[in-house]
Design brief:
Layout: H1 8-12, E1 25-26, E2 32-35, E3 42-45, E4 52-53, E5 61-65, E6 73-76, E7 78-87, E8 93-103, E9 109-111, E10 116-119, E11 127-128, E12 135-137, E13 145-147, E14 155-156, E15 159-168, E16 174-184, E17 197-204, E18 209-216, E19 220-221, E20 229-232, E21 238-241, E22 258-259, H2 281-298, E23 310-313, H3 319-336
Parallel strand pairs: 2-8, 10-16
Antiparallel strand pairs: 1-4, 3-6, 5-7, 7-8, 9-12, 11-14, 13-15, 15-16, 17-18, 17-23, 18-20, 19-22, 20-21
Length: about 325
């Protein structure tokens, strides 16, 4: 049987050389980078739709993917890839793509609770403090991560404590807020410093109490035997801390209105006597050292410093009163002889 060969041209009437194999030409816009609009998770972006040309002179059809993205379009945070495909009437196709990237550079809003003031009313070293969590909001509409080194319901010592919160969104934007917790020591009645003497006080974080001791100026003595320490308790009352049975527990602490008797022991302890008058700065330094010596003797070395000690000078009785007392006592001695 004779083999019959039919050419493409004989079959279709078109020469192979005349078939269009060349795809259209199409160019997409450049990549777009932008930030979110204020207080929004989006940005409205507009661009020019690509124009395609074909060697046939006929306009190709242009399809978009995703098909619902048309300029202008509102994009959310992140990157979106947009494809355009141009197809000529012979089925030749060419594609291009560009990327729209929306960046969130807006930090969250973060509001801490108001400052908290707490009065210490318990005997322990700390006070338990609770507070509400900060209020936050982010333009992304998503949850943020909260971080703090402080834990609600923790125990806080007397003093001021700064509580810092940090909020971070998924884009790494951060916001900070700070509030203060102030724990105040119990307030005891503030008696006047002893006349002709002074009152030295220090706040001990270890004891969570204010510790005071009265001290007498040179050549004066207490009117009665004082406690070597007075502790301001959590109840707001002074406690004379001294185990000696002869100690007067009467408040306020005694004045230094007696004159030192030669050869007689002083009513106070060694750290309750001064080498001068309270008006002398050097004597005030001695008074601070006296108190720290007393604290170490009664308790232990708490690491307190002289700068932690507060001094309050008492009134000075008129010299003629003291001299009168001395004169009367001298006359009594002469009469006794």
């Amino acid at each position: 049987m004779e083999k019959v060969v039919i050419t493409h041209q004989e079959l279709t009437g078109v020469r192979l050389a005349d078939i269009d194999h060349q795809p259209p030409k199409i160019k997409c816009p450049d990549d777009v980078k932008s930030n979110t609009e204020p207080n929004k998770p989006t940005r409205r972006v507009a661009w020019n739709r690509p124009v395609a040309t074909d060697n046939t002179g006929n306009a190709p059809t242009i399809d978009t993917y995703p098909p619902w993205i048309v300029s202008p379009h509102v994009f959310r945070i992140g990157s979106t890839r947009i494809f355009y495909t141009a197809t000529d009437q012979n089925g030749n196709a060419q594609s291009c793509a560009f990327t729209v990237t929306i960046t969130d550079d807006e930090p969250p809003t973060l509001t801490c609770p108001k400052d908290i003031e707490v009065k210490k009313t318990t005997a322990g070293p700390t006070v338990t403090v609770h507070w509400r969590s900060p209020i936050y909001e982010d333009n992304s509409g998503e949850a943020v991560t909260l971080f703090t080194e402080s834990i609600k319901g923790s125990g806080f010592r007397v003093g001021q404590h700064r509580i810092k919160y940090e909020a971070a969104d998924r884009s790494g934007n951060k916001a900070f807020c700070i509030f203060t917790i102030t724990v105040s020591a119990p307030t005891c009645r503030q008696y006047a410093p002893p006349v002709n003497g002074l009152l030295a006080c220090v706040q001990s974080d270890i004891l969570s109490s204010k510790v005071c001791t009265p001290q007498c100026n040179l050549n004066t003595d207490f009117s009665r035997i004082p406690s070597n320490m007075y502790i301001c308790q959590s109840t707001g009352e002074w406690y004379p801390l001294d185990s000696r049975p002869t100690v007067s527990r009467e408040l306020p602490w005694p004045d230094c209105t007696d004159v030192v008797k030669p050869g007689s022991p002083k009513k106070g302890t060694s750290w309750q006597s001064l080498a001068g008058d309270c008006s002398d700065p050097a004597v005030q330094i001695q008074a601070k050292q006296n108190l720290l010596q007393g604290v170490t003797s009664v308790f232990w070395d708490m690491g307190l410093l002289t700068r932690d000690v507060k001094i309050a000078c008492g009134k000075t009785a008129a010299k003629k009163v003291i001299r009168g007392q001395i004169s009367r006592r001298r006359r009594s001695v002469r009469r006794g002889n």
